[in-house]
Amino acid sequence: MSAPTIRAVSDVDIPAICEIYNHYVRASTATFDEVESTPADWAAKRARIEAAGIPFLIAETDGVVCGYALGQPWSPKAAYRRTIENSIYLDPSAAGRGVGGMLLARFLESCREAGLRQVIAVIADRGAEASIALHRRAGFADAGRLTDVGHKLGLELGVHLLQKSL
């Protein structure tokens, strides 16, 4: 696997993003979504993210999308306009190869360039240990924890809240 290229998402990336995400919907607690999304769902999400001026990046290796990072508004209230919640997902074949770190670093740089100031990560307390470690390595600090706020795959799940000031 050659070094990944990090770039802004394009229309042609949407099916691959959908496929990556749906893997986690089906098989893990990394997302609390329980219903798979469609490419049309992702196209609409992309339009909302871009309209809000928030970065949405992909990592590709040898022309194949192997991960993505995006932000979404933390709250619809205007006072939160410079605070986002981030999401980062990798194709399972890209895990443990440094792709996540490269993608998150470029995403945070893009957030700074966009004038954003706070990034919040909401990460499941089971099955997402690698994501917690990734965010901590990128300088995210523990900001709190919520217990038993989700139920998926027969498990009661909580979330860790991590925050990075840009």
TrEMBL record:
Keywords: Acyltransferase, Transferase. Residues 4-162 form the N-acetyltransferase domain. InterPro entries: Acyl_CoA_acyltransferase, GNAT_dom. PROSITE patterns: GNAT. This is N-acetyltransferase family protein. CDD domains: NAT_SF. It comes from the Bacteria. It holds the Pfam family Acetyltransf_1. It comes from Microbacterium bandirmense.
